[in-house]
């Protein structure tokens, strides 16, 4: 072979490792840099998350870095101009931070809740939460309330971990995988890698989704379900399993609260609560002694089923009895749910039995000595290799919490939780149910909160309400509207603050959240709200601070813009205190380090937060001399300890950097991470890998690492007493706070239940289904999922304008042809969009890609960019409040009544053809003005880091070669 | 040697990672830059060597979605090379890679006309034809780790749906996969003998249910009472 | 296929030029040119060469990197485009020698001049054939991949040449039954051939979206081509003017390209003034220009199957 030319001069290139930030997967990347420009971004083969692969977004990092929308410098709204006009003038960091410090100091010393601090797709909630706690405001949350709180909450209240970040299918061993409502997202690379792995092994992959794109494309079987009915499908499968006696009774007796006794005194106080002894320990019925006994004992024979009488004379039933009684009922029979779900009864039954077959006839046994939490040793892990994963399609409905609980119940009944081949938790999970943090309620000037703003209530007494039962948080989280709103309700902040309901605020800080565009419901009116003024001429939200790296639509509304840097220019931690990068069998966290030098006057947001914390003299950030304790974010990360030996980073702790998970601060910790490709992994011993809720070796490690508070076994909760306490409160039967308003009573009674229930999504009950016959949902395309990057010059070539996808047959029956423009109308508003007819959607559903539509001029895009002319948002059709009916619920959030999760997918619409000549997306908005100092977006891009070295063909070959090469 | 790609349609989820990885590597690669026009404007359009197309097979509800990444097939009988008047397009004797010598192309588009797979795209600024090089500037770069000497699209694929190797070598992974999974080429009737091969979706194993289906279904909780299980 | 104006100009004008050259030279060399004056012969040949040259120059306009146009002579071994280029250039010395002899001798050329003329005629024919073969050799476009393509190119070139010949003759002398007969015959033949072509391409053969994707047992439809704006491929190959436009254009081809010129020819032959033949020529040029546009517009490239077309 002829020698090839030297294509690359590697001596001019430098390769460094860091962590991707194009979505929430946090993949490891290896970045080759040439002249402070990125030559190539590649997945890090050694990294636990992505093992070398990288998605489309990660591969488009160059264009993120090149984006003309990158903010250049801090900006102030120009005096004398109105908010939202987009007139800004530069301000120095010195002046910007002084101004902000003065404003915040005043709030903190008078009424700290007047600061609302909400963050979007950040990956630093441990820091922002700590900051808010130290500030003393309870008005803090991240974007979980409009993303996936239903999944997190249902999981944490049922099995101590959850789908996605807190758990994964056992890709290596599972033989049957069911994917519920995963809209090409959550997570990105790990799911792709996992699906390939199971398909290669011949496992069956079933997908439950109204749309067959993305992962569903490669599913072995597609269950084209109607949106919002997944819970019913899960409960019908439970019905089938029970009818065929396909439940893992031993598992239920050993690891769940199935044998616990429940007081059965309907209509009386205490009904439905667990029967407990004087110390509060749950009781079960011991079949040896025929008496109640402490359910936490081992070597007893608890009755799984049965009705008994408690020593105090009250009738009791086992949890499992209540469960079986409920789900054996014919209302859950496949033939009775088939129509509603749009899934044939035969298919429901077959799928349930297929799973049963795999769970019980294809059981896996791994020989390995392990010790359970009670000190008994076992010689094998028994695995039931059925696994599941679920996300947005479950989460984004107002019945999502109960639906997700139903799916977990299905998993638990088959004994598939944290077993080989089943659904595995990821350290620091599992946690005790629920984690023992309560949401903060009390605030005082210049005083940190006693606990974090967000936590896990176990009953009405934990709500964040005043004595009259009114919400204390600006987003009304932990109020009767959304008692278990564990991630807050970011989607309600602007509406509530503008209404002054429950009270007005002074300053709103938004970080990396597009709350005037695609991340809000009711986009058009929210934009107006941000401009709204009171009678005093002051804006209803007096001061709006936006930190972002790019010129988003929301930046346009800021009074103060604090420009962030890109992911290749910053230090970050992906912390064990937060949402680490652990894998099922390895605890792992990671960092980001700067790869490129900054070329703009921007600062990383976490650096700004640490700086502000010092200026505002937060106790945890202030030294004994009254001066700021930390010189920088890096300094803070190294030296801050949550409890002795536990900091943001778990690797290379101790003075010499030789301690895993717990140890003194190590001044060289950043360097140690950098040297180890920016991540730390602690692999679990074989004996610690399964049954971790009841695994002594694992729980001992978890306590050492600060992941759990005790080594007590974690009992999986089929039956949620927390739910029952709220239900009792709704019925007025609770010893503690009870709601006074009828609509609250009704909601608690109806939507809370200790055993999963299904109810129609709330919007469906409040609009006329005949008038609005279609479900309308969105998904993010894989190449943009969760990315802050729709303007990316490469990715937008794949999709710069979205269509409304309709079932072909259904559209034809309505006289709608392919490519037609249609009006899409909901109870709340209407938009115009262009249809694309496809087979891959169930006939009652229409869908589109989310967040493709952009406001003209934002994101560095030109005024005529496809995103603004052809792209559209469904958000205009979705109200942040329930559909208006003139009742007490008119002012209640359009969210899950349990968790406050935004009910994006409850939307119902009607579709009518547009008139001839009605083309182009509608509504249209004014063009966003360019910011001072920003360069004009280039037309042609010719990115390269060096001149190309051409591979030449010889003249001899040109002249002499015939048709065939040999 | 006949180097090429084998693409697994059973696992390709259509994520476009390969396409963007290709764009990323090759814009600074041997035929770079890959010009993008109207990068932030209306109708953005650039040069790509690899595009992912999505199809629907069958009618609802028996429809399946298929994602099909397509790049140069490095055909055995490459008409794009045959028709090229300048000799810019050629197929390497050593390994069968079809390349365009950027210094010789006159931009007549005829090679693109001869290609049924849409593998060639004209760079409107350079005025020359560009196409997949099979990352020739990676696969022979001995300063790279051996596992990195593969096309960028293969390395990045999150669903491991792409394989690179010598289809002339019967023992190579690509040849083995082609044999075992009944790999097929696209539009074989045109006779170009494409090297790149597509593995069709696997047939799912049937999961039996008879062995778990009860003859007399449980209808009441009472049927379970009094079972003894030690905790 | 996107119809490139430069290519339409090139093939129509140079085709007419080569056709005219071949007819003039053959009639002249065989001694059957009626009322041949030196001036007329020179004019006929000059017009032919000008048409050919304008056409060739125009063809280079569609090159995106014309600096390398000279390299187009390198691959005669396999490339019809290269062959066309070489033949087109090779034609000039012979054609010019022959034309120079016609001028020098007043039409009474010697043996060398005759040989040059014969070679030039052969090269002209081969050049037009090669032009046709550039398209006919593309398996990707079934509407082109046929012997009808070079046959059409040759016949249409000759028909236009015949019409030019009779028109120019008309200016010099007047109408002539032989030349008029040749022109009518060529036009009729070309029209028949074009009719056969239109009939032939009606039958759908070759690849479909099923064979393109490999899924042959169920209907296949495009869900998404992987880009929302156009690409080089859709711009180059995605042209589709629609059924109605194509029908009208076909009508235009027959009306302007064949029917009107034939009627005008017949009218002139039956006594009308000969300068009407110029109108016939203009009409034919427009008609055949339309034919060339249709040749592209109706060509359905196989790559469009990957963009959602069901068949080519």
Automatic annotation (TrEMBL), chain A:
<keyword id="KW-0004">4Fe-4S</keyword>
<keyword id="KW-0411">Iron-sulfur</keyword>
<dbReference type="GO" id="GO:0016491">
    <property type="term" value="F:oxidoreductase activity"/>
</dbReference>
<keyword id="KW-0560">Oxidoreductase</keyword>
<feature type="domain" description="4Fe-4S Mo/W bis-MGD-type">
    <location>
        <begin position="13"/>
        <end position="69"/>
    </location>
</feature>
<dbReference type="GO" id="GO:0046872">
    <property type="term" value="F:metal ion binding"/>
</dbReference>
<dbReference type="GO" id="GO:0043546">
    <property type="term" value="F:molybdopterin cofactor binding"/>
</dbReference>
<dbReference type="GO" id="GO:0051539">
    <property type="term" value="F:4 iron, 4 sulfur cluster binding"/>
</dbReference>
<dbReference type="InterPro" id="IPR006656">
    <property type="entry name" value="Mopterin_OxRdtase"/>
</dbReference>
<dbReference type="GO" id="GO:0030313">
    <property type="term" value="C:cell envelope"/>
</dbReference>
<keyword id="KW-0479">Metal-binding</keyword>
<dbReference type="Pfam" id="PF04879">
    <property type="entry name" value="Molybdop_Fe4S4"/>
</dbReference>
<keyword id="KW-0408">Iron</keyword>
<dbReference type="Pfam" id="PF00384">
    <property type="entry name" value="Molybdopterin"/>
</dbReference>
<dbReference type="InterPro" id="IPR006657">
    <property type="entry name" value="MoPterin_dinucl-bd_dom"/>
</dbReference>
TrEMBL record, chain B:
<dbReference type="GO" id="GO:0051539">
    <property type="term" value="F:4 iron, 4 sulfur cluster binding"/>
</dbReference>
<dbReference type="Pfam" id="PF12797">
    <property type="entry name" value="Fer4_2"/>
</dbReference>
<feature type="domain" description="4Fe-4S ferredoxin-type">
    <location>
        <begin position="3"/>
        <end position="33"/>
    </location>
</feature>
<dbReference type="InterPro" id="IPR017896">
    <property type="entry name" value="4Fe4S_Fe-S-bd"/>
</dbReference>
<feature type="domain" description="4Fe-4S ferredoxin-type">
    <location>
        <begin position="62"/>
        <end position="94"/>
    </location>
</feature>
<keyword id="KW-0004">4Fe-4S</keyword>
<keyword id="KW-0408">Iron</keyword>
<dbReference type="GO" id="GO:0046872">
    <property type="term" value="F:metal ion binding"/>
</dbReference>
<keyword id="KW-0479">Metal-binding</keyword>
<dbReference type="Pfam" id="PF13247">
    <property type="entry name" value="Fer4_11"/>
</dbReference>
<dbReference type="InterPro" id="IPR050954">
    <property type="entry name" value="ET_IronSulfur_Cluster-Binding"/>
</dbReference>
<protein>
    <submittedName>
        <fullName>Ferredoxin</fullName>
    </submittedName>
</protein>
<dbReference type="InterPro" id="IPR017900">
    <property type="entry name" value="4Fe4S_Fe_S_CS"/>
</dbReference>
<feature type="domain" description="4Fe-4S ferredoxin-type">
    <location>
        <begin position="96"/>
        <end position="125"/>
    </location>
</feature>
<keyword id="KW-0411">Iron-sulfur</keyword>
From TrEMBL, chain C:
<feature type="transmembrane region" description="Helical">
    <location>
        <begin position="80"/>
        <end position="100"/>
    </location>
</feature>
<feature type="transmembrane region" description="Helical">
    <location>
        <begin position="251"/>
        <end position="270"/>
    </location>
</feature>
<protein>
    <submittedName>
        <fullName>DMSO reductase</fullName>
    </submittedName>
</protein>
<feature type="transmembrane region" description="Helical">
    <location>
        <begin position="178"/>
        <end position="200"/>
    </location>
</feature>
<feature type="transmembrane region" description="Helical">
    <location>
        <begin position="7"/>
        <end position="29"/>
    </location>
</feature>
<feature type="transmembrane region" description="Helical">
    <location>
        <begin position="150"/>
        <end position="172"/>
    </location>
</feature>
<feature type="transmembrane region" description="Helical">
    <location>
        <begin position="41"/>
        <end position="59"/>
    </location>
</feature>
<dbReference type="InterPro" id="IPR007059">
    <property type="entry name" value="DmsC"/>
</dbReference>
<keyword id="KW-1133">Transmembrane helix</keyword>
<feature type="transmembrane region" description="Helical">
    <location>
        <begin position="276"/>
        <end position="295"/>
    </location>
</feature>
<dbReference type="Pfam" id="PF04976">
    <property type="entry name" value="DmsC"/>
</dbReference>
<dbReference type="GO" id="GO:0005886">
    <property type="term" value="C:plasma membrane"/>
</dbReference>
<dbReference type="GO" id="GO:0009389">
    <property type="term" value="F:dimethyl sulfoxide reductase activity"/>
</dbReference>
<dbReference type="GO" id="GO:0019645">
    <property type="term" value="P:anaerobic electron transport chain"/>
</dbReference>
<dbReference type="GO" id="GO:0009390">
    <property type="term" value="C:dimethyl sulfoxide reductase complex"/>
</dbReference>
């Amino acid at each position: 072979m002829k020698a090839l030319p030297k294509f690359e001069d590697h001596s001019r290139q430098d390769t460094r490792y860091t962590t991707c930030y194009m979505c929430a997967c946090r993949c490891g990347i290896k970045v080759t840099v040439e002249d402070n420009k990125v030559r190539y971004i590649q997945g890090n083969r050694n990294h636990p998350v992505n093992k070398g692969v990288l998605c489309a977004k990660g591969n488009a990092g160059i264009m993120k870095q090149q984006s003309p929308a990158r903010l250049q410098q801090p900006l102030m709204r120009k005096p004398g101009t109105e908010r939202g006009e987009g007139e800004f003038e530069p301000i120095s960091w010195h002046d910007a931070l002084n101004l902000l410090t003065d404003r915040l100091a005043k709030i903190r010393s008078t009424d700290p809740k007047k600061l609302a601090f909400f963050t979007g797709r950040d990956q630093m909630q441990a820091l922002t939460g700590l900051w808010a706690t130290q500030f003393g405001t309870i008005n803090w949350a991240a974007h979980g309330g409009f993303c996936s709180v239903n999944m997190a909450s249902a999981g944490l209240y049922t099995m101590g971990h959850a789908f996605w970040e807190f758990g994964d299918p056992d890709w290596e061993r599972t033989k049957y995988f069911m994917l519920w409502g995963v809209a090409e997202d959550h997570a990105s690379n790990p799911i792709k890698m996992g699906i390939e792995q199971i398909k290669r092994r011949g496992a069956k992959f079933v997908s439950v989704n109204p749309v067959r794109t993305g992962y569903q494309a490669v599913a072995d079987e597609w269950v084209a379900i109607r949106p919002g009915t997944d819970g019913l499908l899960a409960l019908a499968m439970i019905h089938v399993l029970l009818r065929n006696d396909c439940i893992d009774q031993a598992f239920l007796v050993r690891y769940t609260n199935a044998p616990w006794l429940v007081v059965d005194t309907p209509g009386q106080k205490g009904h439905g609560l667990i029967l407990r002894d004087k110390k509060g320990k749950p009781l079960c019925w011991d079949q040896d002694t025929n008496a109640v006994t402490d359910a936490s004992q081992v070597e007893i024979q608890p009755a799984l089923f049965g009705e008994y009488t408690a020593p105090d004379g009250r009738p009791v039933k086992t949890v499992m009895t209540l469960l079986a009684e409920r789900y054996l009922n014919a209302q859950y029979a496949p033939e009775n749910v088939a129509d509603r779900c749009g899934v044939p009864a035969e298919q429901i039954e077959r799928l349930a039995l297929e799973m049963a077959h795999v769970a019980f006839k294809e059981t896996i046994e791994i020989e390995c000595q392990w010790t359970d939490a009670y000190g008994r040793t076992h010689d094998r892990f028994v695995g039931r290799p059925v696994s599941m994963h679920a996300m947005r399609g479950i989460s984004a409905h107002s019945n999502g919490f109960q639906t997700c609980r139903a799916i977990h119940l299905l998993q638990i009944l088959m004994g598939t939780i944290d077993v080989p081949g089943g659904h595995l938790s990821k350290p620091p999970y599992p946690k005790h149910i629920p984690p023992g943090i309560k949401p903060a309620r009390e605030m005082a000037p210049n005083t940190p909160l006693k606990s974090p703003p967000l936590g896990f209530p176990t009953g009405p007494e934990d709500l964040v309400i005043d004595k009259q039962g009114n919400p204390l948080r600006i987003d009304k989280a932990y109020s009767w509207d959304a008692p278990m709103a564990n991630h807050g309700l970011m989607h309600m902040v602007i509406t509530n603050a503008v209404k002054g309901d429950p009270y007005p605020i002074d300053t709103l800080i938004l970080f990396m959240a597009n709350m005037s565009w695609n991340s809000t419901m009711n986009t058009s009116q929210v934009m107006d709200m941000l401009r709204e003024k009171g009678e005093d001429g002051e804006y209803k939200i007096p001061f709006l601070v936006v930190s972002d790296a790019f010129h988003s639509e929301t930046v346009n509304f800021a009074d103060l813009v604090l420009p962030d840097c890109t992911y290749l220019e910053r230090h970050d931690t992906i912390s064990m205190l937060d949402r680490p990068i652990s894998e099922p069998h390895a605890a792992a966290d990671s960092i980001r380090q700067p790869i490129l030098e900054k070329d703009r006057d921007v600062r990383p947001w976490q650096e700004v937060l640490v700086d502000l914390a010092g200026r505002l003299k937060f106790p945890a950030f202030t030294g004994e001399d009254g001066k700021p304790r930390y010189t920088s974010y890096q300094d803070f990360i190294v030296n801050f300890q949550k409890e002795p030996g536990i900091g943001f980073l778990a690797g290379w702790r101790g003075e010499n950097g030789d301690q895993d998970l717990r140890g003194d601060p190590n001044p060289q910790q950043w360097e140690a991470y950098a040297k180890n490709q920016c991540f730390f992994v602690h692999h679990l011993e074989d004996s610690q890998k399964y049954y971790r809720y009841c695994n002594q070796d694992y729980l001992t490690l978890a306590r050492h690492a600060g992941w759990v508070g005790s080594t007590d076994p974690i009992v999986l909760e089929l039956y949620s007493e927390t739910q029952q306490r709220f239900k009792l409160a709704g019925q007025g039967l609770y010893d503690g706070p009870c709601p006074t308003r009828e609509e609250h009573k009704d909601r608690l009674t109806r939507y809370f239940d200790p055993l999963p229930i299904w109810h129609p999504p709330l919007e469906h009950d409040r609009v006329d289904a005949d008038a609005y016959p279609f479900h309308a949902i969105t998904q993010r395309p894989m190449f943009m999922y969760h990315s802050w990057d729709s303007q990316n010059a490469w990715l937008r070539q794949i999709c710069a304008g979205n269509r409304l996808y309709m079932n072909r047959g259904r559209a034809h029956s309505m006289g709608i042809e392919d490519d037609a423009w249609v009006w899409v109308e909901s109870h709340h508003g209407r938009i115009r969009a262009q249809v694309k007819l496809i087979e891959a959607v169930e006939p009652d559903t229409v869908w589109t890609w989310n967040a493709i539509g952009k406001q003209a001029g934002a994101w560095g895009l030109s005024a005529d960019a496809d995103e603004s002319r052809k792209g559209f948002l469904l958000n205009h059709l979705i109200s942040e409040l329930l559909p208006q009916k003139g009742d007490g619920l008119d002012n209640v959030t359009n969210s899950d009544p349990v968790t406050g999760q935004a009910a994006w997918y409850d939307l119902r619409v009607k579709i009518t053809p547009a008139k001839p000549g009605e083309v182009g997306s509608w509504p249209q908005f004014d063009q966003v003005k360019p910011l001072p100092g920003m360069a004009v977006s280039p037309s042609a891009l010719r990115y390269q880091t060096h001149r190309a070295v051409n591979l030449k063909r010889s003249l001899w070959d040109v002249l002499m070669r015939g048709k065939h090469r040999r | 040697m006949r180097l090429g790609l084998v693409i697994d349609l059973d696992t390709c989820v259509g994520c476009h990672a390969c396409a963007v990885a290709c764009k990323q590597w090759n814009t600074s690669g041997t035929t770079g830059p890959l010009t993008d026009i109207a990068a932030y404007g209306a109708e953005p359009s650039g040069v790509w060597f690899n595009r992912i197309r999505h199809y629907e097979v069958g009618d609802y509800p028996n429809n399946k979605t298929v994602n099909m990444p397509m790049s140069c097939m490095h055909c055995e009988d490459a008409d794009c090379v045959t028709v090229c008047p300048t000799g810019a397009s050629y197929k390497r004797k050593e390994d069968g890679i079809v390349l365009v010598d950027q210094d010789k192309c006159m931009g007549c588009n005829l090679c693109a006309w001869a290609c049924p797979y849409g593998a060639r795209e004209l760079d409107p600024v350079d005025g020359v034809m560009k196409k997949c090089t099979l990352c020739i500037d990676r696969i022979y770069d001995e300063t790279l780790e051996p596992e990195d000497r593969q096309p960028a699209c293969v390395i990045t694929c999150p669903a491991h749906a792409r394989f690179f190797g010598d289809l002339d070598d019967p023992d190579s992974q690509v040849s083995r996969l082609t044999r075992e999974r009944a790999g097929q080429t696209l539009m074989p009737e045109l006779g170009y003998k494409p090297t790149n091969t597509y593995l069709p979706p696997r047939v799912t194993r049937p999961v039996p249910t008879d062995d778990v289906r009860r003859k007399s279904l449980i209808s009441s909780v009472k049927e379970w009472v009094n079972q003894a299980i030690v905790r | 296929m996107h119809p490139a104006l430069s290519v339409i100009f090139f093939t129509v004008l140079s085709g007419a030029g080569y056709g005219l050259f071949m007819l003039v030279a053959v009639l002249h060399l065989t001694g059957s040119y009626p009322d041949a004056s030196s001036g007329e012969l020179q004019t006929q040949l000059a017009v032919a060469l000008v048409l050919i040259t304008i056409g060739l120059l125009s063809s280079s306009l569609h090159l995106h990197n014309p600096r390398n146009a000279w390299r187009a002579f390198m691959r005669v071994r396999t490339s019809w485009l290269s062959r066309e280029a070489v033949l087109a250039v090779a034609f000039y010395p012979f054609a010019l020698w022959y034309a120079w002899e016609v001028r020098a001798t007043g039409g009474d050329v010697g043996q060398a001049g005759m040989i040059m003329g014969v070679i030039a005629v052969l090269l002209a024919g081969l050049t037009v054939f090669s032009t046709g073969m550039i398209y006919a050799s593309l398996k990707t476009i079934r509407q082109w991949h046929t012997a009808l393509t070079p046959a059409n190119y040759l016949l249409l070139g000759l028909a236009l040449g015949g019409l030019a010949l009779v028109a120019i003759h008309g200016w010099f002398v007047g109408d002539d039954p032989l030349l008029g007969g040749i022109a009518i015959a060529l036009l009729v033949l070309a029209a028949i051939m074009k009719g056969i072509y239109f009939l032939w391409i009606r039958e759908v053969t070759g690849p479909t979206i099923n064979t393109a994707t490999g899924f042959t047992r169920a209907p296949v439809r495009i869900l998404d081509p992987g880009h929302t704006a156009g690409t080089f491929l859709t711009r180059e190959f995605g042209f589709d003017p629609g059924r109605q436009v194509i029908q009208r254009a076909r009508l235009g081809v027959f009306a302007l390209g064949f029917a009107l010129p034939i009627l005008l020819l017949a009218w002139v032959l039956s006594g009308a003034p000969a300068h009407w033949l110029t109108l016939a020529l203009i009409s034919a040029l427009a008609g055949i220009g339309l034919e060339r546009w249709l040749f592209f517009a109706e060509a359905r490239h196989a790559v469009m199957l990957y963009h959602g077309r069901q068949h080519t």
